[in-house]
Specification:
Blueprint lengths: L1 H27 L7 H19 L4 E2 L3 H8 L8 H24 L1 H4 L3 H4 L18 E2 L6 H6 L3 H13 L22 H8 L16 H6 L24 H18 L3 H6 L10 H6 L20 H23 L6 H22 L5 H19 L12 H22 L15
Parallel strand pairs: 1-2
Helix pairs in contact: 1-14, 2-14, 2-15, 4-8, 14-15, 14-17, 15-16, 16-17
């Protein structure tokens, strides 16, 4: 986990730089693809994902080293051919994992966060799950284990394969000629994220486009079918934690409410969106019927509130980078406490972005607890060793959180009558 944390210390600023470049590009060509609240929500979702992974929160059903030890027919060296074959194996496994996520009810829960944005840009690539608490992906790498692909090869290629999927989440790059026949391109991935009937559940590949063409899931982007983004059952929240478990909660309620015992079991493994007949009639769930005419999620905002949301985003980024930088020097228990502060922070300020009345309670309480923690420990997880007044700055941050949450909840007048700035471009 320490190596992963150190890698993120460099990867996160790099991704943020690419986001900034795309935002500036959109601004200068007057074709902005970013909106403040959606962007803050997307990046915050990425924060929760890397936080969960860096803390090792979850259960691994079976590890690749275990499969390698018990299934390998031979021990092979890591030649360039082995590296190439391993990359193909990871991409093939990724295709089927992605297809599973789209086609099976319970698996969709861990993927819906990635599709939940009604925008399509580099930020939405960061919408990654915290609900994937049971790791099963190594099972899809059994072919690699059988031939003895070394673990170090898989360990190096897996994050590279993941990070290589970032760049094609953009609307600013058109079709790429002959490359469309080789790799997943922005054009193909726009199709994948679209909710148009012509596009739904298409282009499931991750790096190579051959799998979609081979298994019948390829769809070219059509000039006369502009992609519309989001999910057919809109998330209707900026809170990434809630989005992560929305679908699970719907399945759970349906399983509880149905009178058919077989339906209580099979609902989890039926095609995505399937519901027992009796529950579907008694408890209908709104679904987008016309993808070209539906109300996209927005909440009342002001320029000041937009600025505050961005402030909270960068504060969380600062906390996260400090956690990764100081990871080896923080005990595991303190890592969990630090992680909880960040996680609850994301939950709190995104709930405030939703204008939920209970958000102020969360924000005031975490502010009070944060200040108390700084006063009690006289530090902030070793920050004072790098900055003389680091913990004091953190204390001021928590004070700002308390005051701002009270202000935006109770004192910002006529907020519902103000322009919905978050529906405008950055």
């Amino acid at each position: 986990m320490e190596a992963y944390a150190q890698a993120l210390l460099y990867a996160i600023p790099f991704f943020m730089l690419l986001l900034a470049i795309e935002i500036l590009y959109g601004y200068f060509i007057k074709n902005q693809k970013y909106k403040v609240m959606d962007t803050v929500s997307s990046i915050s979702s990425g924060f929760t994902n890397v936080l969960k992974d860096s803390l090792g929160l979850g259960v691994v059903l079976i590890s690749y080293p275990y499969l390698l030890e018990h299934l390998a027919f031979a021990e092979i060296k890591a030649t360039w051919l082995v590296w190439f074959a391993a990359f193909i194996a990871i991409d093939f496994a990724g295709y089927w994992n992605h297809r599973l996520n789209h086609r099976i009810n319970i698996f969709w829960n861990q993927h819906v966060i990635h599709h939940s944005s009604e925008e399509f840009n580099l930020a939405c690539a960061l919408r990654q799950p915290v609900s994937n608490l049971i790791a099963y992906f190594p099972l899809l790498l059994i072919p690699a284990a059988l031939v003895g692909v070394p673990y170090k090869v898989i360990a190096v290629l897996a994050p590279i394969h993941l990070f290589a999927q970032f760049w094609y989440h953009t609307q600013h790059i058109g079709k790429l000629g002959w490359l469309e026949y080789v790799i997943i391109t922005p054009s193909q991935h726009r199709v994948h994220h679209a909710i148009n009937p012509e596009y739904i559940d298409k282009n499931l590949g991750q790096i190579l486009s051959i799998w979609d063409r081979m298994f019948g899931t390829f769809q070219e982007e059509l000039d006369d079918v502009p992609a519309q983004y989001g999910v057919l059952k809109p998330a209707a929240t900026w809170n990434p934690v809630l989005i992560n478990f929305q679908h699970f909660w719907r399945i759970f309620k349906d399983a509880w409410r149905t009178t058919n015992y077989w339906d209580k079991i099979r609902i989890w493994f039926m095609p995505t969106g399937w519901r027992p007949a009796d529950v579907a009639i008694k408890f209908p769930i709104p679904i987008i019927e016309d993808v070209y005419d539906f109300e996209r999620y927005k909440t009342p905002s002001s320029r000041a509130f937009n600025a505050y949301a961005i402030f909270q985003l960068f504060a969380s980024l600062g906390f996260l980078l400090h956690l990764f930088y100081n990871y080896p020097n923080i005990s595991f228990n303190d890592l969990l406490i630090f992680g909880a502060f960040i996680f609850v922070g994301v939950y709190g300020y995104t709930t405030l972005m939703d204008r939920a009345q209970y958000a102020v309670v969360i924000e005031v309480m975490r502010g009070i607890i944060g200040i108390a923690f700084v006063l009690y420990t006289k530090d902030w997880f070793g920050l004072d060793a790098y900055f003389a007044y680091g913990s004091m700055i953190v204390g001021i941050y928590f004070l700002i959180t308390i005051v701002a949450s009270l202000y935006f909840t109770y004192f910002e007048k006529n907020i519902t009558n103000q322009v919905l700035i978050n529906t405008q471009n950055l």
